[in-house]
């Protein structure tokens, strides 16, 4: 049995990770630290409220004194909390530096002083920049972030590396490609497409729609993190990808087809500033060294995702009318 502190566990990937971990390791206690920003949704982990071995703490990871206190007796930190939306980073870069860079340093320091045994830092393939039509990012690709979001994530990666090199702190970095699946806030491409198409609304598509992303079903990301917790080597970086490269246009077309909606729903809009053209990730290291492999093809993962959004009408309605935010003032567990 090991005790986990998960940051950002009310967000998309963090909450899916808690669901995954509780299913596979039901006896492990988890503290979920989340500030409940606009992206944090109490509904995402409400199922665990009141369960023995689960505690939600509404807090900023930048609260140094509280982080120090919470680290007592923690074996593993899994750090998801971040400002994560590229478009928002273009409008307010400072906020991204405060949470993603300064917040990560405060968490690292608290974990180091608390003698945590392993710290998993969840990063992104976006720190590597953009690719042409060929090639893929490996763990030794130089960092070349292009947006304030990816620059802030690269900054946090460098701090994690420095904590390993300077203090021998047992930190590991994972860099994954675009995740999709249940409980994703509908500002990101796939849930935006699904929720709009279900309401018969137009679907905005940046530029020519030919930007390429590699798609990873969120449960496959969770199983990769599980392997890193179990066997990842401190100081190492592991890329995690789904080997599912698709243009944004192909993604939109697949979703419209599966929902039985016409392609006339697509509305091309002006491209995002500094929009990276292509990301592709070489995840052969985690496959070879930790024996991880994704279980979901894009088609299978997309089908499961669609079924979830179609079924969870209340979750979608509470996001759409903003009532998911009501908990934010009420909760100070
Ligand atoms: N979504 C993806 O496709 C993707 C891909 C690669 C990497 N990542 C990384 O994975 C992590 C999780 O991404 P996500 O998509 O789940 O993000 P998300 O935006 O859905 O969730 C982020 C969570 O962090 C919380 N949070 C934000 N600032 C906080 C703070 N100062 N203190 C405490 N909590 C705070 C929010 O309330 C929210 O619950 C991020 O670090 C992101 O960079 C995501």
From TrEMBL:
CDD domains xref list: dTDP_GD_SDR_e
Pfam family, one: GDP_Man_Dehyd
Required co-factors: NAD(+)
Keywords for the protein's UniProt record, in alphabetical order: Lyase, NAD
Transmembrane feature ranges: none
Domain NAD(P)-binding: 5-305
Molecular function GO labels: dTDP-glucose 4,6-dehydratase activity
Catalytic reaction equation(s): dTDP-alpha-D-glucose = dTDP-4-dehydro-6-deoxy-alpha-D-glucose + H2O
Presence of keyword NAD: yes
Signal keyword on record: no
EC number: 4.2.1.46
NCBIfam families: dTDP_gluc_dehyt (TIGR01181)
Similarity section: Belongs to the NAD(P)-dependent epimerase/dehydratase family. dTDP-glucose dehydratase subfamily.
Name of the protein in its database record: dTDP-glucose 4,6-dehydratase
Source organism of this protein record: Paenibacillus plantarum
Gene (UniProt): rfbB
